[in-house]
Model the fold of this input.
Amino acid sequence: MLKKIGYALLAVFIILQFIRPEKNISEVPSENDIRVKYHVPSDVLAILKRSCYDCHSNNTEYPWYANIQPVGWWLKDHVDEGKDELDFSEFGTYSAKKADHKLDEVIELIEDKEMPLESYLIMHGDAELSEDEAAAVITWAKELRTQLKQQI
Done:
């Protein structure tokens, strides 16, 4: 009986490998990308790409294990949730008030060391922000908020 259940579970697992979620990969920046509408210094952009863009843009760099289901579905859900909260690729579509609020959240989450998420850092240790990197992103976000407040 256990052998039959094992074979059935194995068959389900194999079938699941053929049902894959769509991947969040874009070859070129969106016309609404934050760097198209606002100035993002190259050092800050490099930090954002390394530490934020996998979950908060239209270009996720997937690890090998994303090809194993149901892990791929879980990652898709995680990326979708991240983009619902903040999407740097669509930042240009935000109103000045919403963009200001999102940047305020970025500052708060980085200051509180809540971003990048601990669960993300387990597999992406290079995404952890040094004090200097955190300060650079926070300074940039505060400067951009100053610009945005003039539009509100």
